[in-house]
Amino acid sequence: MNDSPLQVLTLPTSPYPDQRPGTNGLRKKTHVFQSEKNYLHNFIQCIFSSIDLRDRQGSSVVVGGDGRYFNSTAIQVIVQMAAANGVGRVVIGQNGIMSTPAVSCVIRKIKAIGGIILTASHNPGGPDGDFGIKFNTASGGPAPEAVTNKIFQLSRTIEELAICPELRVDLGTIGKQSFDLENKFKPFTVEIVDPVESYANSLRNIFDFAVLKELLSGENHIQIRLDARHGVTGPYVKKILCEELGSPANSAINCVPLEDFGGGHPDPNLTYAADLVETMKNGQYDFGAAFDGDGERNMILGKHGFFVNPSDSVAVIAANIFCIPYFQHTGVRGFARSMPTSAALDMVARATKIQLYETPAGWRYFGSLMDAGRLSLCGEESFGTGSDYIREKDGLWAVLAWMSILAARRESVEDIMTDHWRTYGRNYYTRFDYEEVDLDAAVEMMLDLELMISDRAFIGQVFTVGEKKYQVEAADNFEYSDPVDGTISRNQGLRIVFKGDSRIIFRLSGSDSFGATVRLYIDSYEKDINKLFQDPQVALAELVTIALQLSQIHERTGRRGPTVIT
């Protein structure tokens, strides 16, 4: 306990016009938060101001980050401002490290008023990389649109901020630190916690760790290769998979969180985790997985580098859901996927007669359904999978779900996947990302596309590529009405649906710190057993040609091709 009360100051500030949070919070280049006066402070103040003062007083807030550059500095500011804004306790992962799923878990466990997560997810880190701030509410999930809109409106008019500038926290020592503040009756408390333990306890209640330990270290154990990509998941993988479940220490690589992720791109896909794919090709390992910067996303690989598309991954988990003890106890309330995700999950929902929800991209839409008791399992094509035990996507949860299926079925990843296609049919799927394109050009292209598909004459139009013909059955700009509260979310992506369940989708992404990202998604259902094993890029070539012709995306953006193909 410090001897003399610390001073609480109210300082003048000026607003910034560009602090609108996207679906994953506010993301900018790191230097913006570092060099623009009060840029970080303003946004943090607006988060606290968005919470009613009566709710803030004496409340608990969880803070964690993925360890990227500027993480520790930002945490010190957040603690100083939390104290000045009436928060009673801040719970922080040791050294400022805590994965996004773990933050959600801890928020729910201690009944915190919310959490602040310092991450730009799968975006690069370092002084020249990206930094981000995301606010999660008391449910443990990303702030809903009404809250992020309120934060943005406050950011446009902010005139002052509250801070306790002399307060300094030791982030490295586990335990409680108390501080007396002037004009405050109770001490302000900071609690530094093991970032893994509460989260690991939750996983122990979901999965059968004895079964998983036998799979990973028993007499007939499988060989695995897990790549944490120098993100926050490393300590979790080491403690849970290696130390507790017995997988050899060398089965987990790149497990030390680094400020710049070792100079790499912490994105678990075929492009940025190509080294893991290459390692898997030699046949030494039966199962492989990669994670992103903050522990949300996952990529699943089988022997010889067999790739499991994320849309297929959630469908396989759904089809084998009772291999996971948690669902044996709770039952299954519903499945959900984001609109751009392939319809593979729909086929399982249809066969099992379980309700399926199609939402806009963004995990917060799943949270509303979970809070209402309507949803148990959900996923996104962007390598995100999760369940209702928390309110975030969870890469390690998805890996343990797959391992539970492997343990129950004693088949390879590839055999499980091909059996799934034979049972439910296959959704061939790909996504093209055009990153950091000119925003004005991208917006103009999307407006012209919408004008084209909105024309009544577009419905019924036939496109011929080679010997194949595709007839337009429907086209729209996706609009979602939340079945829980009736909230309507418009302009969520342009959809062109062809007869036979093929789709072309165009979206502008809102999660990038520079320029715009245009995403093109192609989804085509195939139930002919003789056509289930084609290369996806070959199977979808005709639909890709149609999409490029309709959008003129290369000509409109000046790009010869996509930055990333998934």
Automatic annotation (TrEMBL):
Polar residues composition bias: residue spans: 1-13
Protein's UniProt name: Phosphoglucomutase 1
Chief localization: cytoplasm
Residues annotated as domain Alpha-D-phosphohexomutase alpha/beta/alpha: 19-160, 198-303, 311-424
One term under GO cellular component: cytosol
TM segment ranges: none
Gene Ontology molecular function terms on file: magnesium ion binding; phosphoglucomutase activity
Gene Ontology terms: biological process: carbohydrate metabolic process
Pfam families registered for this protein in UniProt: PGM1_C_vert_fung, PGM_PMM_I, PGM_PMM_II, PGM_PMM_III
Annotated segments matching region Disordered: 1-24
Family as reported in the entry's similarity comment: Belongs to the phosphohexose mutase family.
